[in-house]
Amino acid sequence: MDARWAAEEKPPHVSSGTTAVVAVLRGNSLVVASVGDSRCVVATSDGDDLSGISLTTDHDPSLPVEKARITAAGGYVVDGRVFLDADGTQLGLAMSRSLGDRRLKAAGVVSTPTLQTRDVKGDAYVVLATDGIWQVLGVDAVARALEGDEADAEYSCKNLIIEATALWGLEVSDYRDDITCMVVKCNPLTLTDVQASYVSVAAVRKHPVKERAPEQ
Fold first, then answer.
1. 159-215 pLDDT, tens per residue?
2. pLDDT at 58 over 80
3. Which Pfam families does this chain map to (predicted)?
């Protein structure tokens, strides 16, 4: 995508970009590629409970390896964001890797994904979601929310979206970050188990938010 835009005489939206997380299943081997702060998490059995394991690492500009690349390219990391100037007034991207954001490529923002592979034979679910999920529900909270939903991945996906939306309303008022989620049920895996859902505002308003223990 970035290469195609770079070849265009007048590329669109030079200050806009996106995160991406892609998972490809080959047999029992799941290969995950990520750019930005969208995540892929597996929910796996931990005795009688499900626990979450992240297969991605958020590309935070403050991470030493990311900050070193940005600084070497002439960019600046101010309060965890990438800027074109030391005063932190020009742009300000909250991630060090993305698709698009062409104005910040000169500041060290790249589109190179990080890769991870996992054998999912013993896992219950794979969850791919944007940071609107992860900012209000942690990795383990998402895994716990899936417990008891083994028969229906679509139901699980809707519940996660509803609960995250409701929590944004309680904790951040009217604003919420992008909430996009896909839940894939493992073992057995069939095409009908791959579900993405859109949820109405009315459904969110009716959804009770449960008390949650702090993330460890």
1. 899 889 888 888 777 777 888 999 988 876 654 444 444 455 555 555 555 544 555
2. yes
3. PP2C (PF00481)
**In angstroms, rounded to a whole number, what is the distance separating the alpha carbons of residues 123 and 101?**
35
CATH number, domain of 28, equals 3.60.40.10
What predicted TM-score, i.e. pTM, was given to this entire model?
Answer: 0.81
Number of domains in the chain: 1
User: Could you give the 3-state DSSP secondary structure of residue 72?
Assistant: helix
Burial 20-57 (b: 16+ CB within 10 A, else e): bbebeeeeeebebbbbbbbbbbbbbeeeeebebebbbe
Instruction: Sort 183 into a burial class: Cβ within 10 Å, 0-12 / 13-18 / 19+.
Output: buried
162 and 207 in contact (C-beta within 8 Å)?
Answer: yes
Residues linked to residue 116 through DSSP beta bridges, in sequence order: 32
Query: What pLDDT digit, counting tens, does each position of 117-166 carry?
Result: 999 988 989 999 999 999 999 899 999 888 876 657 888 888 899 889 88
Tell me the residue range of the domain where 23 lies.
Answer: 17-192
